[in-house]
Amino acid sequence: MHRRTALSVSAAALIAAAPLLTACGSDAHPGAAAVVGGQRIEVSTVQAQVKDVRTAQAASPEADRLIKATGDLTRQKLHSLIFDQVVARVARDNGVTASRAEIQQARASFAQQSGGEKPMAATLLQQQSVAPDEIDDVARRAVLMDKIATKLGATNSPEGQQKLTEAFSTASKALRIDVNPRFGAWDNERITLGTYSAPWVRQVREGAVEAGA
Question: Which of 6, 30, 66, 121 could cross-link 57 (Cys pair, CB 3.0–4.6 Å)?
Fold first, then answer.
């Protein structure tokens, strides 16, 4: 039976977004927006993602509304880059992988639910500020989170929620995430950048990541 991924759940949630980055990194890590597991996330990498989203937004019929609604876009993109590293660590710790075929299957499934590739891209842009060339990353995250939830036996029960939260918090701490203070501070317990909370993080905390049959 076809597996249901968390992709459609993630895409359905509204995200807040951050101002365009113009500064360099912290004194400890010049040019870095954050250091995760000893690996730098460059300010230029965050800027490039922000630019891609702004370009896609500008081409949308709802450009003004989309841009106005995503004033926190920079911090959102930095949050996503950090969170993806946490997901990767949890996946690695639990022997979980996402094959190219699985990523494409998740993408195709959501495109079908959305009525095609173009409606899917429009939905992700509007609801998650995802540029077209980032859609595979969203699908990969969905596949991994779905598999992690299955591996941990995480359900919507309090026990399942606790298992998922503990796994992500443990991985987050192990990565020793160091964020440039100008962009906020990473919270290992809440798995968030400052007060920003992406929908997939709320799923982790609230036990809303479901494994489909």
Answer: 66
